[in-house]
Amino acid sequence: MPGVYTGLMEARRKNPLLMALIDPEKYSPNAAAHIASVLDDSSFHAILVGGSTAIWQSKVDDVILAMRKETVKPIIIFPGSISNLSPRADAVLFMSLLNSDSTYYMIDQQFLAAPVVKGMGLEAIPTAYVIVGEGGTAGFVGRARPVPEDRPELAAIYALTAGYLGFRLLYLEAGSGAKKPISPSFVEIVRKTSPIPVMAGGGVKTAAQVYELFDHGADVVVVGNVLENPSEANKLIQGLKALRT
Ligand code: 1GP
């Protein structure tokens, strides 16, 4: 059986990828189970679980266990901190926040987390995390020096750096609940330089926005907040059905 990263990259050869972000602070196990069953019958390729603030681990375990019963899609931790880890997941985006002013978010927390990830048996997917624009809570908590929205060439240099350092994904983050997503032209400029697949997330609400980011080269688009509103989530999922071919 291929690993999670390998499986996703195989899927990427056919279509760009969609990932749903579930923040365990915002979902009860029942609500998480419900959204997982909806996502299981959708074009989404994987479910990310995490948020920017700390959370106790048993809550993360409960949310993942509840989702596990409803979906066969890979469940990947998107950690805000070491407390977001859970052995119930399939993998973890083992992230370094490259444009943080603090070594804590670049390497210190990863140092603390590495033995835990190993002990939990999680597949670690080396991911370079770069905050763009307003950056939201992730930018605030992570002490980021966000890349200005009109300077995509700086993010392209981060992409090159991340590739040379051996990261396997680059995540461009506008911040959860951002007023607008990272612009498609920004993603396009980064993608032209990036030696590794580019993820974009933060503020994506509609299928049209997802398609636009895909058209401009995003390998992965992440949506989170919009899934918390059942009617908006349904509209988004229906609008993305064309990806299922
Ligand atoms: C946040 O990029 C993700 O880390 C998703 O953002 O919640 O705004 O969709 P939204």
Q: Rg, please?
A: 16 Å
| CATH classification class | Alpha Beta
Shape: globular
The amount of beta strand, in percent, is 15-25%
Strand order of the largest sheet: 1-2-3-4-5-6-7-8
- Write the CATH architecture name: Alpha-Beta Barrel
Bound molecules: SN-glycerol-1-phosphate
Query: What is the domain tally?
Result: 1
* Topology pattern, helix = H, strand = E: HEHEHEEHEHHEHEHEH
Distinct helical segment count: 9
CATH homology superfamily name? FMN-linked oxidoreductases
Largest sheet: 8 strands, parallel, barrel
How far apart the termini lie comes to 23 Å
The total strand number stands at 8
Give an overview in words:
With 245 residues, the chain is of the alpha/beta class. The chain has a single domain, classed as TIM Barrel (Alpha-Beta Barrel). Helices cover 42% and strands 17% of the residues. The protein is built from nine helices and eight strands. The protein has helices at residues 4-14, 29-40, 57-68, 103-120, 136-141, 152-165, 184-193, 207-215, 230-239, and strands at 17-22, 46-49, 75-77, 91-97, 123-131, 169-173, 198-201, 220-223. The protein has an eight-stranded parallel barrel with strand order 1-2-3-4-5-6-7-8, surrounded by seven helices. β4, α4 (103-120) and β5 form a beta-alpha-beta unit. α2 packs parallel to α3 (57-68) and α6 (152-165) packs parallel to α7. The longest helix is centred in the middle third of the chain and has 18 residues, at 103-120. The protein starts with a helix and ends in a 6-residue tail after the last helix. The mean pLDDT is 95. The structure holds SN-glycerol-1-phosphate (1GP). SN-glycerol-1-phosphate binds at residues 21, 138, 173, 176-178, 201-204, 222-226. The site of SN-glycerol-1-phosphate (1GP) has 15 residues, from β8.
